[in-house]
Design brief:
single chain; 183 residues; alpha/beta; Rossmann fold; seven-stranded mixed β-sheet
Length: 183
């Protein structure tokens, strides 16, 4: 109970940066990681690492030769996860998702996001989605969790196939699964 209270306080202090008042639910963590590819040498990008609960699930799903690049703008969250998750497959980047092309030179096999698109300008949101699409290899997914369906059309403008999965929680969490398919 004390850990949940501390998490609530930490998230609420940084609401407009994290966009969350609590950690992502376990059901949402499992759902958002649904399309992480199996196999060797995969590159996974995570936007909004927070306290690392989605990060841990990603690391549990990938091979020993794969990498996770986790973006987080909150320096204290970065330090906390760096101290708690000792895994050489994890590369923590203390920067925003809008700088994916600056930090990631390889093609990407999956993008997992829990960043607050609702607080971004339309231009910033579209830029992040487009840059992520550009980095993804064909037939892969960008999966994003939000508390509203409001931004779904932005993803549909760029991705070929998109659908929403809702997870009943307080508040309800929506996962956008968006697939890049090129002919």
């Amino acid at each position: 109970m004390i850990k949940k209270l501390k998490t609530f306080i930490a998230f609420s202090k940084h609401l407009f940066v994290t966009g969350a008042i609590t950690e992502t639910s376990r059901n949402t963590v499992v759902e958002i990681c649904k399309y992480i590819p199996k196999g060797e040498n995969k590159i996974i990008v995570e936007f909004g690492m927070g306290h690392g609960n989605i990060t841990r699930e990603i690391l549990n799903k990938i091979s020993s030769t794969s990498k996770v690049y986790s973006f987080e703008v909150n320096k204290s969250f970065c330090k906390q996860v760096e101290n708690e998750i000792l895994d050489n497959r994890l590369i923590i980047i203390n920067d925003g998702a809008e700088n994916i092309k600056k930090h990631i030179k390889e093609n990407v096999d999956s993008v997992i996001g829990s960043i607050p698109f609702s607080f971004f300008s339309k231009e910033k949101a579209i830029g992040i989605i487009q840059d992520s699409y550009d980095k993804l290899v064909n037939n892969t997914y960008f999966s994003q969790v939000l508390y509203t369906k409001f931004n779904f059309k932005k993803f549909q403008q760029i991705f070929n196939k998109c659908y929403i999965k809702s997870i009943k929680h307080t508040p309800t969490e929506y996962i956008f699964h968006c697939k890049k398919e090129c002919n």
